[in-house]
């Protein structure tokens, strides 16, 4: 079935690229065998619309033109689908090759590889990768293990509202969220979605590892304005605990919690048997982060942070 679809897409692309005038659906159906074999007009229309969308997703520019008889026609002009001359030097080509290796996900890796092939076909130099000698020892990666990443990435790109079930750190069960997604940000090894929560009428940040089930797209346009990139990043950092407004004092089991130690403003070792004392920046979301370290962390002060951590731990124990 995959081969048949690929052949059908290729035939459609060749038809649209090989004509000097727009072709109607009727003409395309009479020219492509797979369309001739479609059972009924509705089946053909659905197949054609999917194929047209797939070709556009692959980068083919398809124009829709209405002729004098009012009939809609389609064509892909060669000048609109031709890459301009590539003027990258060897160092720029090497940088693109390295960037293509960053993503670990199979589908994203395939897209990056396909993009490189198109650039090389258009004249990008086959540069000697200056990073090859270190590649076996050190190679950049962006880890993305959450199944929600790819559908949310596409929803952010296409400005499509989404619905998903989300479990807060202090909740026993997930709740549905209706969100207008803005952008994805990676912070401390975790991915976060920043967007507009329709139910709460406010911007919110969601950690992808707490999204359960499938992300489902919804029709319609965004109802809230999308802020600029810098503002969104600041929102992500704030809700994830990056923006600190004061300090907290905690005890941390010796030999544990290295991410906390890396952020600490001061560390006093051996204050008790097997425990060190740390002063760390305290911002929104710190309580959720501390809960992840379980019994290896004890909050000393402030009292409100200690109470928030205790509440979260109790909720987890009940769930």
Characterization of the model:
By secondary structure, this protein is an alpha+beta fold. Helix content is 39%, strand content 25%. It contains 12 helices and 12 strands. The strands form 3 sheets. Strands 7-6-5-4-8 form a 5-stranded antiparallel β-sheet. Strands 10-11-9-12 form a 4-stranded antiparallel β-sheet. Strand 6 (190-197) and strand 7 form a beta hairpin. Helix 1 (2-17) crosses helix 4. The protein is elongated, with a radius of gyration of 26 Å. Residues 127-137 have low confidence and may be disordered.
Write out the strand line-up for the largest beta sheet, numbering strands in chain order: 7-6-5-4-8
Any idea what the radius of gyration is?
A: 26 Å
Helix tally equals: 12
Principal-axis shape equals elongated
Overall structural class, as computed from helix and strand content, comes to: alpha+beta
Mean pLDDT, nearest integer?
80
Can you give the helix content as a percent range? 25-40%
What fraction strand? 25-35%
Main pleated sheet: 5 strands, antiparallel
Q: How do the SSEs run, as a string of H and E?
A: HEHHHEEHHHHEEEEEHEHEEHEH
* Subunit organisation of the chains: single chain
In terms of per-residue confidence, which ranges show pLDDT below 50 for 5 or more consecutive residues? 127-137
Gap between N and C termini: 45 Å
Give a count of the beta strands, DSSP E runs of length 2 or more. 12
């Amino acid at each position: 079935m995959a081969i048949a679809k690929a052949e059908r897409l290729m035939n459609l692309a060749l038809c649209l690229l090989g004509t000097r005038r727009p072709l109607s659906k009727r003409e395309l159906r009479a020219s492509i065998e797979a369309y001739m074999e479609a059972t009924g007009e509705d089946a053909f229309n659905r197949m054609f619309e999917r194929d047209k969308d797939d070709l556009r997703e692959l980068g083919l520019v398809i124009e829709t033109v209405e002729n004098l008889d009012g009939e809609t026609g389609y064509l892909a002009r060669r000048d609109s689908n031709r890459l301009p001359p590539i003027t990258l030097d060897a160092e720029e080509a090497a940088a693109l090759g390295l960037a293509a290796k960053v993503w670990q996900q199979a589908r994203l890796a395939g897209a990056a590889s396909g993009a490189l092939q198109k650039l090389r076909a258009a004249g990008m130099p086959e540069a000697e990768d200056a990073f090859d000698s270190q590649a076996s020892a050190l190679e950049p990666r962006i880890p993305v293990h959450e199944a929600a990443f790819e559908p949310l990435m596409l929803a952010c790109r296409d400005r499509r509202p989404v619905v998903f079930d989300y479990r807060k750190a202090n909740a026993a069960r997930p709740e549905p969220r209706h969100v207008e997604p803005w952008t994805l940000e990676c912070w401390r090894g975790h991915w976060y979605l920043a967007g507009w929560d329709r139910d709460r009428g406010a911007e919110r940040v969601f950690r992808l590892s707490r999204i359960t089930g499938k992300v489902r797209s919804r029709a319609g346009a965004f109802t809230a304005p999308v802020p600029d990139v810098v503002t969104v990043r600041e929102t992500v950092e704030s809700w994830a605990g990056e923006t600190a407004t004061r300090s907290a004092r905690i005890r941390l089991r010796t030999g544990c919690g290295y991410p906390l130690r890396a952020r600490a403003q001061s560390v006093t070792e051996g204050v008790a048997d097997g425990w060190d004392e740390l002063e760390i920046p305290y911002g929104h979301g710190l309580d959720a982060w501390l809960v992840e370290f379980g019994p290896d962390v004890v909050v000393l002060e402030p009292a409100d942070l200690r109470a928030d951590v205790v509440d979260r731990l109790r909720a987890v124990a009940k769930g």
